[in-house]
From TrEMBL:
An annotated GO BP: tRNA pseudouridine synthesis
Protein name: tRNA pseudouridine synthase A
Protein family membership: Belongs to the tRNA pseudouridine synthase TruA family.
Molecular-function GO terms, alphabetical: RNA binding; tRNA pseudouridine(38-40) synthase activity
Length: 246
């Protein structure tokens, strides 16, 4: 047996999330179906670096699995992509030690969130960027983001549905850049709670519209109360961009 680490990308539009579930198509399910074909009917369990919600995309999701097959690493990418649907692609394959874990050994994650900021929505980007017709104040959103850099308890920015007890996380950077009519938000941190990036985005959008002040962010953090933060932003603007390991 050898452990294989893969970096994959997927278009989340037609998926009900990453993790296998009773109802709806998932990325993990497609990966395991393809591997089952390659292993002549044997179920190969795939472990991901984390879950993504329905309609969330990924350019750098990381998975691992154990296999008895002796396929050269450069052939794994081509072989698995031949079995996968077009909205999931394997980008890289590596052999890793048997104790490597795609989820537990993560030291840093990077997400992007894209906002199409113009009067009329773009029909060709409707599944890949969230449309916002009102002009957004980038300076105010950057000032709001600055309050979140460092280690904090992010209870206020976490879904109440989570069962995670420790909600302390470290955010290393939040960048907000404009490319033509699109705003690209980059979040880099030690890890992110359930819906954390989308709740942060919902709050930033309220700041950008002028519905909330940038200097409210410290009191929202301190409150440790989900109701104090903004609405959860839609999923289709979110991308799992990169997962880093020590």
């Amino acid at each position: 047996m050898q452990r294989i680490k893969m970096t994959i990308s997927y278009d989340g539009t037609a998926f009900n999330g990453y993790q296998v579930q009773p109802n709806g198509r998932t990325v993990q399910e497609e990966l395991q179906r393809a591997l089952k074909q390659m292993h002549k009917g044997k179920l190969i369990h795939v472990t991901g670096s984390g879950r993504t919600d329905a309609r969330v995309h990924a350019l750098g999701q990381v998975i691992h699995f154990d296999t008895p097959l002796s396929i050269p690493l450069d052939k794994w990418v081509r072989a698995l992509n031949a079995q996968l649907p077009a909205d999931v692609r394997v980008l890289r394959a590596e052999a890793v030690p048997e104790d490597f874990h795609a989820r537990y050994h993560v030291v840093r994650k990077t997400y992007h969130y894209r906002v199409n900021n113009r009067d009329a929505s773009d029909v060709f980007r409707r599944n890949y960027a969230v449309h916002e017709a009102r002009e957004l104040n980038i300076g105010d959103m950057r000032r709001a983001a600055a309050h979140l850099i460092g280690e904090h308890d992010f209870t206020s920015f976490c879904s109440a549905k989570t069962d995670v007890k420790d909600k302390v996380r470290t955010i290393y950077r939040i960048d907000i850049e404009k490319e033509n009519d699109e705003l690209i938000f980059t979040f880099e941190g030690s890890g992110f709670l359930y819906n954390m990036v989308r709740i942060l985005m919902g709050t930033f959008l309220e700041v950008g519209r002028g519905d909330r002040q940038a200097d409210e962010l410290p009191s929202i953090l301190e409150a440790q109360d989900r109701s104090r933060a903004g609405k959860t932003a839609p999923p289709h603007g979110l991308y799992l961009w990169e997962v880093s390991y020590s």
